[in-house]
Amino acid sequence: MGSLTGDALDFETGLFTDPLGLNIDMQKWLYKKQCEIVRRMSLFRGELPLGHPQFSPESKAALSGTEKPEGLNGLLSADVPDIEYSAEDEAVLETWLCEIVGLSWHPLGSCKMARREKMGVVDASSSVYGTERLKLMDLSIVPGAASGNTMNTACVIGEKAVDMVLHELGVV
């Protein structure tokens, strides 16, 4: 991130940055498990390419189209073998997950209001630590998940922000 407002953003979400790789391993396991569950359901009619990585056509993990595993009766069946993933499939799956996984909820708390030693970015007056005349007054300052609609939280922050700025400027 540069010093000018027109500089390109360099924002890291932190997704899949676990040094042990546990985050990506969990996502790979979840993808595989949901595939195994869905393909055993009586309503299964095949796979749509849109929701899957592009495995090699020779791969055992490649989409089966409208093929349905034999002998299914609507229940999970131990007779249906799990899909076998090769090392190449694992790499394709990991790359695909890194490309498509994102945040689906309203992210908040990326610049939480807390003491610096508690990894806070702004103080109680919404001033950014280490800067002068810079305040954050949006959902990024929320120190934890909101238990309700985030719009309500945003409105309260906005109302408080106006009040704080007016007082600091001596308007009220």
Could you describe the 3D structure shown?
With 172 residues, this protein is an all-alpha fold. The chain contains three helices and no strands. It starts with 21 loop residues before the first helix and ends with a helix. The chain is elongated and about 75 Å long. It has helices at residues 22-38, 87-100, 150-169. It holds the Pfam family GMC_oxred_C. Residues 86-158 form the Glucose-methanol-choline oxidoreductase C-terminal domain. Belongs to the GMC oxidoreductase family.
Short précis:
With 172 residues, this protein is mainly alpha-helical.
What class would the helix/strand composition place it in? mainly alpha
Tell me the overall shape.
elongated
Query: What percent of residues adopt helix (DSSP H or I)?
Result: 25-40%
- Average of the residue pLDDT scores: 85
Model regions low in confidence, pLDDT < 50 over at least 5 residues: none
Please outline the major beta sheet.
none
Distance between the termini: 36 Å
Tell me the fraction of residues in β-strands, as a range: under 5%
Total helices: the number is: 3
Rg from Cα: 24 Å
Helix and strand pattern: HHH
Number of strands: 0
